[in-house]
Amino acid sequence: MRALALGLALAPLFPPLALLSLLFLPRLRGLSRGGKVLLLLYALSLLGPALFAPEPWALPLALGRLLYVLGLLGAGVALAEKAPKEAMAPLGVGLVLLYLTAFGATFWAFGDKAGEVRLMHPFHSPVGLGLMGALGVFLALYVRYPWPFRLLLGLLGGAVLLLSGSRGGMLALLVGGGGGLLFRGRGLWALGLGGLLLALAASLDTPVSERFFEAHLSGREGLWLRAYEVFSEHPWTGVGPYVLGDYLRGTLFGECFLFPLLEAKGLHCSEGLRPLGGLWQFAHNHLLQALGESGLPGALGLLLLVGGFLAAAWGEGLLFTLLLAYAAMGMVDNPFSVPSPFRGEVFFLAGGMALARRDPFPGALGWAGVLALLWALPFLYLASRPEPPPPLLAYAVLPREGVGVVRLLGGEGYRAQVWLCEAKGCQRLGWEWRADGPIRFALPEGLPPGRYRLRVVLFSQHRLALRPRYLLEEEVTR
Q1: Cα 186 to Cα 138: distance, rounded to the nearest angstrom
Q2: Closest CA to 221 of 475, 462, 477
Q3: What φ, ψ does residue 309 adopt, rounded to 5°?
């Protein structure tokens, strides 16, 4: 247990240590019968679709994910030999070290302008860093650290969440804190701190703090639409774990990108990494991610697994709060996709600790339904908006030199995204434009002559988000 505690403290700075979790696979034998059935159903939902998925690497990648997840759950079962608050305490030490390196790295990259950009880390995006800040707040509230360290962890965690500008991290803090209220735990403190952070953000006149009050989805609509298209083409098998990113490349970011801090220092994907660029591109919603990777069976298996975690954690404030925070953030991000920079791994460690407490059935079924509704909320909102009349595609030009042009008839009031599609994937060109005039866009460098599909996705603006309304396609020759 001492070695496990040391690994938990060091893993936030040295994420590959999480691979040692495979040594804890035998610990799963100690689970209840219901816990073993839950893991068997999850394994079948992952491996079964991969057998028939169109991508040849689907099965070995699915097997790799399964073993890694099971290893993390086994490590969680081992941690459960102690009370959750005591077992999770070493993680707070690792988080403090992570926060300090984030502050140092951001100042190293931006110097005096560090206060004008989102807080970054060499191997965390600002979104992931915001979630790690929320985790520190929860640990500071629930774990009985010595008060100086408790205060330091809570203040640093809140500062990291605020300076990262992560709306997903704030959502995790507020929903997780709300879950803590169910057990008269520290949920009220978490909600109060979340309100304080939002008040501070409102008082700061910076682009980072303003993010907490922005209603747009930062381009997630295009990712959701593309992930749904992949699912609709392969509804029973998906395309395979970790392979969905190949179909999402270019939709929101480039075909291959590194962490924002590294990109800011001029480090970009080498040619050797470009074929692997899809491995770290996600659908930004756990339901759509599972549907695109493993079809309906995979989505049901994931819902049941996470529902089982929540059912088994019921009554234990820290575990339930952490798990619910991750689940809430799953509406707009993929916080427990693994492997990760020891971010999603914490979720499965907590899940293993929960399964060691009690049998997850029959509560897992009810919580799976709650999760399905939670993760579908963005789409239920978008689907509830009225339909305006459809525009028409007047012309689309893809010249050999210069810029491409698209012109719509009846595009008033719409925003437009333009994608260039080949046989397998689509690349987003630029960001978005008003659709009531000519849309001019730069072509990708080195684009060879040939036939392509030019897709124009039209969005209508509403209070909370842009809703994808219409998809217009034109086959063009360059």
Answers
A1: 8
A2: 462
A3: -60, -50
Torsion of CA 279, 284, 287, 289, to 10 degrees: -20
- Structure tokens given for 150: 């408790």
What would the pLDDT profile of 353-411 be if each residue is shown by its tens digit?
999 999 999 999 999 999 999 999 877 766 665 566 778 888 787 776 778 888 888 88
Distance (Å, rounded) from C-alpha 104 to C-alpha 397? Answer: 48
Q: Which residues neighbour 108 within 8 Å (Cβ) at sequence distance 6 or greater?
A: none
Give the Å distances, CA to CA, from 402 to 133, 398, 433, 445: 45, 9, 18, 11
147, two tokens: 């008060």
Q: What's the pLDDT tens digit per position in 248-289?
A: 887 776 677 777 777 777 777 877 777 676 677 899 999 999
337 φ/ψ angles, rounded to the nearest 5 degrees: -70, 130
How many CA atoms does the CB half-sphere of 235 hold within 13 Å?
A: 1
Give the integer Cα–Cα distance in Å for 450 and 115. Answer: 46
What is the secondary structure of 431-454 as a DSSP string? EEEESSS-EEEEPPTTPPSSEEEE
Among the listed ranges 21-30, 123-132, 318-327, 424-433, which one has the minimum average pLDDT value? 424-433
Q: Which two structure tokens, joined as six digits, stand for 432?
A: 């978005």
CB 445 within 8 A of CB 255: no
Nearest residue to 372 (alpha-carbon basis) of 314, 311, 327, 321: 327
Task: Sheet containing 392-397: give its strands across.
Answer: 392-397, 403-409, 439-442
